């Protein structure tokens, strides 16, 4: 596991693909991998504390903050609950973000687009759906999407857009569902309608072009504002910018 920053109270890691965040018996996870990794580096027989104040989907890569004691976990969870944490994701989505084919937007750095929808988790299924606000279990989902560049992948004939997403709320599969609902499924995300493959390989679930790029939060011990950024996986190097 790539550790981006280490402190006695917390870690910041770059999560690889095909790992669950939280431990489930018999399945590899960030939690179990880190416990093993930290135990191998520690002296003594005590089991390292690994607490997860947030999670990433198995098919998603990128930056995560990990608590190393109960107090840190509580303080970090409080920050997530009160929306003091800023999470930015990068995604490669199908179709141009702006109307007019592959035409670039009028400004070099256009303002982010705000998407607001009502979504709910489908009962007994690991999937979410768009719904009316009156639907049982409906929760508001808000995110902001900023255009970065038009791009393409070798061997893929679909116009693609590289975007940055900032979450205002944190719902199950929120980015994946809202992107698909607005006509821009994430590359490789067949669960939400993608027509293309992001990466092949011996994975239990196919990877998708979604990467948790950066996270901002307050240091749980000193209250200093911190910003961390996770490098892209090598698969992102295949993306070619369209002039």
Can you walk me through this structure?
- The protein has helices at residues 30-41, 70-81, 174-181, and strands spanning 2-6, 10-15, 61-67, 86-94, 113-121, 128-130, 139-152, 160-167, 210-218, 225-229, 240-241.
- With 243 residues, it is an alpha+beta fold.
- It has a single domain (2-241), classed as 2-Layer Sandwich (Pseudouridine synthase), CATH 3.30.2350.
- The model has no long low-confidence stretch (mean pLDDT 90).
Key structural traits:
globular, 243 residues, alpha+beta, 3 helices, Pseudouridine synthase
What can be said about the biggest beta sheet? 11 strands, mixed
Shape: globular
Determine the CATH superfamily.
Pseudouridine synthase
Q: Which residue ranges are poorly predicted, with pLDDT under 50 across at least 5 consecutive positions? A: none
Name the helicity range. 10-25%
CATH top-level class: Alpha Beta
Radius of gyration: 19 Å
Distinct helical segment count: 3
Mean of pLDDT: 90
Strand percentage: 25-35%
Query: How far apart lie the N and C ends?
Result: 36 Å
The domain tally reads 1
Give the CATH architecture: 2-Layer Sandwich
Structural class: alpha+beta
- Work out the oligomeric state of the chains in this entry: single chain
SSE order, one letter for each helix or strand? EEHEHEEEEEHEEE
Beta-strand segment tally? 11
CATH topology call: Pseudouridine synthase
């Amino acid at each position: 596991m790539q550790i981006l920053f280490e402190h006695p109270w917390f870690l910041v890691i770059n999560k690889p693909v095909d790992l669950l965040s939280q431990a489930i018996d018999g399945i590899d996870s960030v939690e179990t991998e880190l416990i093993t990794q930290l135990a191998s580096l520690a002296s003594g027989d005590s089991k390292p504390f690994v607490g997860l104040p947030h999670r990433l989907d198995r098919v998603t890569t990128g930056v995560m903050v990990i608590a190393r004691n109960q107090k840190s976990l509580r303080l970090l969870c409080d920050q997530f609950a009160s929306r003091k944490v800023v999470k930015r994701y990068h995604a490669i989505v199908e179709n141009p973000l702006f109307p007019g084919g592959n035409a670039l937007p009028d400004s070099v750095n256009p303002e982010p687009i705000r998407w607001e929808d009502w979504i709910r988790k489908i009962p007994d299924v690991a999937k979410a759906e768009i719904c009316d606000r009156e639907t049982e279990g409906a929760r508001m989902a808000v995110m902001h999407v900023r255009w970065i560049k038009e791009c393409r992948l070798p061997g893929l004939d679909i116009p693609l857009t590289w975007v940055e997403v900032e979450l205002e709320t944190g719902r199950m599969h929120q980015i994946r569902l809202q992107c698909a609902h607005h006509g821009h499924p994430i590359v490789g995300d067949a669960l939400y309608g993608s027509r293309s493959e992001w990466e092949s390989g011996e994975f239990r679930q196919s990877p998708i072009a979604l990467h948790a790029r950066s996270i901002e939060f307050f240091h749980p011990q000193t209250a200093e504002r911190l910003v961390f950024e996770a490098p892209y996986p090598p698969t992102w190097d295949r993306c070619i910018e369209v002039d």
